[in-house]
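Thread amino acids onto this structure.
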C-alpha cells in the first residue's frame, strides 16, 4: 500500500526538467542541421563552378577562346553566370540566394584563381 501512495506519477518539476532537456536537444539538432545545409550549398556552388571551369578549358581547346555562356545549373539556392570571357581569360561567378555564415555568398573563378580564398579547400 505504501508503494502506491509514494509513486503515483511524475511531479510537475520532473515533467518540466524533461521538457527543458527535450527543448535543448531540439535546439542543438536544428542549429546543426542548418549549418549542414549551408555547407551543402557551398559545396554545390563550388562543384558547379569547377564543372564550368572544366567546360571552359574544353571550349578553349576546341575554339581557341573561352565561352560566354555556361550550361544551365538548375539549383534554386544559387545562380551561375559568366561575367567575362575572351581569348585569354574568363570570369565565372556563383551567387548564393541566401546568406552564408562564412562570407562565401559570392564565389569567383577565373582561369588562374579561386576566390575568396578562405571558401576553397
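Threaded sequence (121 positions):
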Amino acid at each position: 500500500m505504501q508503494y502506491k501512495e509514494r509513486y503515483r506519477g511524475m511531479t510537475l518539476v520532473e515533467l518540466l526538467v524533461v521538457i527543458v532537456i527535450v527543448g535543448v536537444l531540439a535546439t542543438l539538432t536544428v542549429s546543426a542541421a542548418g549549418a549542414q545545409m549551408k555547407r551543402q550549398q557551398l559545396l554545390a556552388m563550388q562543384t558547379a563552378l569547377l564543372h564550368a571551369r572544366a567546360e571552359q578549358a574544353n571550349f578553349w581547346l576546341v575554339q581557341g577562346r573561352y565561352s560566354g555562356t555556361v550550361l544551365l545549373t538548375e539549383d534554386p539556392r544559387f545562380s551561375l553566370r559568366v561575367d567575362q570571357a575572351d581569348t585569354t581569360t574568363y570570369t565565372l561567378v556563383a551567387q548564393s540566394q541566401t546568406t552564408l555564415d562564412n562570407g562565401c555568398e559570392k564565389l569567383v573563378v577565373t582561369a588562374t584563381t579561386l576566390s575568396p580564398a578562405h571558401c576553397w579547400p
